[in-house]
Specification:
The protein is α+β, with helices and mostly antiparallel strands. The chain is 27% helix and 24% strand. The protein has a five-stranded mixed beta sheet with strand order 5-8-7-6-9, covered by helices on one side. Strands 1-4-3-2 form a four-stranded mixed beta sheet, covered by helices on one side. A hairpin with a 3-residue loop joins strand 2 and strand 3.
């Protein structure tokens, strides 16, 4: 398909909406996860935000919905980028203290990511960028190292953040090792 001369694209991603039969539980989870403010809530709708947008996430309560099958197709996760390793670490610690733990932690290469499941099985990726510039991240995604392992390497967040707090640099901690002999990137997928 030839490139469009006057290609028009969206200005930004505005919001996502999740429907659920676990309304209160989902509102509590997402508000805690994102440290969000409630812009509006009634018995059926909750609109929340974490910045100057009127809402970034909405939860809609619909009684009697079927649970989704984990093996069905659909949206895998929503991703949220933090400004620094310190912000991501503080968020991890705040959530852990609230009893919310990540189900999968992975160094993708371009990002360091913590994945959290909500009560309905939807996932949120809380991440930081590991490259200072978009051009560097784009080059990495086009590299042989990324092609060899497009998933990344799992890591233990307690160990990672403990080492960071002890003085190891984010650059040293986030070097994404190559796969070992006989290891597959499938070994690093979330189970």
């Amino acid at each position: 398909m030839p490139a469009e001369e006057n290609k028009i694209t969206p200005s930004f991603f505005a919001h996502a909406v999740l429907k659920t039969s676990r309304f209160e539980e989902m509102v509590t989870h997402w508000q805690t996860l994102l440290n969000a403010d409630i812009a509006h809530q009634d018995p059926m709708f909750c609109f929340m935000t974490y910045d100057d947008e009127h809402h970034r996430l909405a939860i809609v309560g619909i009684p009697g919905l079927k649970d989704k099958d984990a093996q069905s197709s659909g949206l895998d996760h929503l991703a949220y980028t933090y400004g620094s390793i310190d912000d991501l670490m503080a968020t991890y610690e705040r959530l852990k203290a609230a009893g919310i733990n990540p189900g999968w932690c992975v160094n993708h290469g371009p990002t360091l990511s913590l994945y959290y499941n909500d009560p309905d099985g939807n996932r949120a990726e809380l991440q930081i960028d590991l490259f200072a510039r978009a051009e560097e991240a784009n080059a990495f995604i086009q590299s042989e190292a990324f092609a060899e392992n497009p998933i990344g390497i799992k890591f233990d967040p307690d160990d990672f953040f403990s080492r960071y707090r002890a003085g190891e640099s984010i650059e040293a901690l986030s070097i994404r090792r190559r796969l070992k002999e006989g290891e597959s990137f499938f070994d690093h997928l979330n189970a």
